[in-house]
Amino acid sequence: MRAGDIAINLPTVRPSDPVAKAVRLMVVNRLPGLIVVDTADRPVAVLPGTQVLRLVIPGSYQNDPTLVRTIDEVHADLFWQEPGSLTVGDCLPDGAVSPATVTPDATLLEIAILMARKHSPLLAVVDRARVLRGAITLERLLTSLAVTGPGD
C-alpha cells in the first residue's frame, strides 16, 4: 500500500480563517488537527487541536494549573467558547516548520516513520507541485497497517 491508496480528502483551512471554523471542522469530522493551506492549496502548516487549546486557555491557568480549582464547573465548561477574533494564523507557532508531507508513492513504513519523527497525527499528501492531494491521519495509517498482513 502507498500513500495515494490510503489518503483521504479532509477539510482544510487558511491562516485567515477564524479559529471557531477550525474547531467546528475538527469536531464535526473527528480530526486531530487540520492542514492549513495557502491560496494555491499548498500546505503551509498542520494545526493540531492541542495548539488551539493552548490559545483559548487563559495563560494564567496554563502557568499555574492550581488556579483551575478556583473556577466553578459552569464557568470551567465555557472557557473554550471564547476564541474571540483569533484566526488560524494566530494559532500557528512563530517560525512554524513546514508541515509533514509525503508523495502519493510513499510506503506505509515511510509514512509511519515521518509521523513518529514529526510527532504529527496528520500528514499532507502532495503532488510534485506541492499541491495538496489528500491527507493521512494516524487513525487511517494504523487501520491500514492492521488490515495489511504478510503477503498483502
From TrEMBL:
Q: Name one Pfam family in it.
A: CBS
Residue intervals of the CBS domain: 1-65, 91-152
Keywords, in A-Z order = CBS domain
Keyword Ribonucleoprotein attributed = no
Task: Give the protein name, as stated in the record.
Answer: CBS domain protein
Organism equals Nocardia neocaledoniensis
- Source species taxonomy: Bacteria, Bacillati, Actinomycetota, Actinomycetes, Mycobacteriales
